[in-house]
Amino acid sequence: MTHKIVVGFDGSASGRAALDFAVRVARAQGGSIVIAHVLEWSPYSFLTPNEIEERHKRRKEELARARTAVLDPVVAELAESGVETSTALKYGHIAETLCKIASDEGAGQIVIGRTGHSTLSARLFGSVAGSLAQAAPVPVTIVP
Amino acid sequence: MRKTVTAAALAAPALLALSGPALAQSLDQRINDTFANATGWFVSFIFSPFPGTSFPWIVAWLVVAATVFTVYFGLVQFRAFRHSISLVKGDYSDPDDAGEVSHFQALATALSGTIGLGNIAGVAVAVGIGGPGATFWMILAGLLGMASKFTECTLGVKYRNEYPDGTVSGGPMYYMTKGFAERGLPMGRVLAVLFSVFCILGALGGGNMFQANQAHAQISNVVGDYPGWITGLVFAGIVFAVIVGGLKSIASVTEKVVPFMGLLYVLAVLVILGMNADKIGWAFGQIFAGAFTGLGVAGGMVGALIQGFRRAAFSNEAGVGSAAIAHSAVRTKEPITEGFVSLLEPFIDTVVICTMTALVIIITGQLVTDPETGLYLLNEAGTAIQTVDGNSGVALTSAAFSSAFGWFSYVLALAVVLFAFSTMISWSYYGLKAWTYLFGEGRTKELVFKVIFCIFVVIGASASLGPVIDFSDAAIFAMAVVNIVALYFLMPIVKRELDSYMSRLKSGEIRKFK
């Protein structure tokens, strides 16, 4: 088992908790972490002609914003932590994409934060944590 | 400005109460007469028959083109059908490109522009005039049209304009100018200007007035008769809010509801067909027999053929060039993949959905036959087949569905309104692209077009079906005249792309990601 940890990080407080936990584990094991930020996206959603025309431009903007507002600050902050960090920024279904990042990176585990209350939509469509528990190729840690 | 229009739309019913129905009806009448007079010459030119026959040259033009493309690309619509479905499923999409417009999204958006009244009202017009046999020619036209669509959409992506900010503009006007220049051909610019002019007219006609007209017909069918300009004002207000006011929420709600309505429509058809399963064989018998004998309908076999081809072209827009605008924004390394995806459009639109509507109208016995000869009876004017309640257009489809489920007319009314609305939004975009091609991009210039577009919503809802449908067809077919000329000159380029892609697909250079 490798000591590489994929952390699902969305900039929220629970994401932060997951990241802190992962950093502690990585430091203890001498491992590294991959900070993964996934932008929810379905290729089967419906768009208007105008949205289609602007999609490429919007995508560039969304990626740039995610990088500068979500990923760059934590990377800079972790630079002094002594833990080797890298980032992954992808579009897709969140749980599926985290699994894919884990296998592509050859990670040994996935860490995510818990969103808290079980919402109605989570009951209907399943939560990220639930889907990961079902489908992840590696052990998953859910940080409360 | 936006507030004024919305206020006007809200005030309309109150105004009606004040002015009384007589005055309102005469306003409709005036709009109708003026409109019919102004567009008559254009309509008669487009639909003029070959000398000595009753066969309009424009219908031959479309069918010959679709046949030429079908032969030239070696039956691409059948050869590449399975590959097209794989592309839509995303089997060949690089996961690293996630977040860009997918093939599925491009197809869905283009479909929501074409699926609509053509499938509901247009089919009823075709079957009402041409008899069940019109369905056969409609299906044939749909199958052949797949090749036309393939050709124009491949070119649309290949020659689109990409701007530094990442947005794209594409469509026939761009392949006319850039493609012709690349091949060293003259006149590309002239064709592009002509196409743009017709595209603006088509956007105002089939993409707007016909939609408003039939939406009004459907609503008044449910709630009772009232003047069309009221529906027109309300619709114009909403369209204005979306395309000028940038009210994205309405547009995106429509985009999400329309596919659902489409599914509901197909489901309802399947249930009705299931209830009348014993008659399906008979209905197909009528379709085949009518295709070659006419079964006594107006104009006989040729009448059935003309109606079938005409309504198919109007419904799936193959060869018209509009789809090339819709598909051109997709991000793909291979323009031809968008051509493959687009060829599914006439299949879904015409071969599947139009046929279903026709079957329901035939099976539920809306068309009156002579009990002795079994031939169809014509109405008093001799222009169409007699229907049970004298219905035509969308009202005929509605009557057919209601004979199975009484409440379905309400669902259909909602579907028609939503389809009409989403088609208007799509066509306002196509028209705008043609407009900006002619006059350049810029806020004021774009606003002028959008306001004109909204005014035509009111005219379309007020005029009667005859002049509106004639003008709509004429304008859309005029686009096809110019577009197909360009396709003939540029098809060797598509052929080269097709051969190269197919050989790379075979050699495994183009591989699946899933």
Briefly summarize what is shown.
Chain A has 144 residues and is of the alpha/beta class. Chain A contains five helices and five strands. Chain B is globular, with a radius of gyration of 22 Å.
Can you characterise this structure?
By secondary structure, chain A is of the alpha/beta class. Chain A has one domain: Rossmann fold. Chain A is 51% helix and 22% strand. The radius of gyration of chain A is 16 Å and the shape is globular. Chain B is mostly helical and 514 residues long. Helices cover 75% and strands 1% of the residues of chain B. In chain B, strands 1-2 form a two-stranded antiparallel ribbon. In chain B, strand 1 and strand 2 form a beta hairpin. The longest helix of chain B is centred in the C-terminal third of the chain and has 43 residues. The chains are: A alpha/beta (144), B mainly alpha (514). At the A-B interface, helix 2 and strand 3 of A face helix 6, strand 2, helix 12 and helix 19 of B.
What separation lies between the terminal Cα atoms of chain A? 24 Å
Query: In terms of per-residue confidence, which ranges of chain B show pLDDT below 50 for 5 or more consecutive residues?
Result: 1-21
| Most extensive protein-chain contact, per-chain counts | A-B, 25 and 34 residues
Helix count from the secondary structure assignment of chain B: 21
CATH architecture field of chain B:
Up-down Bundle
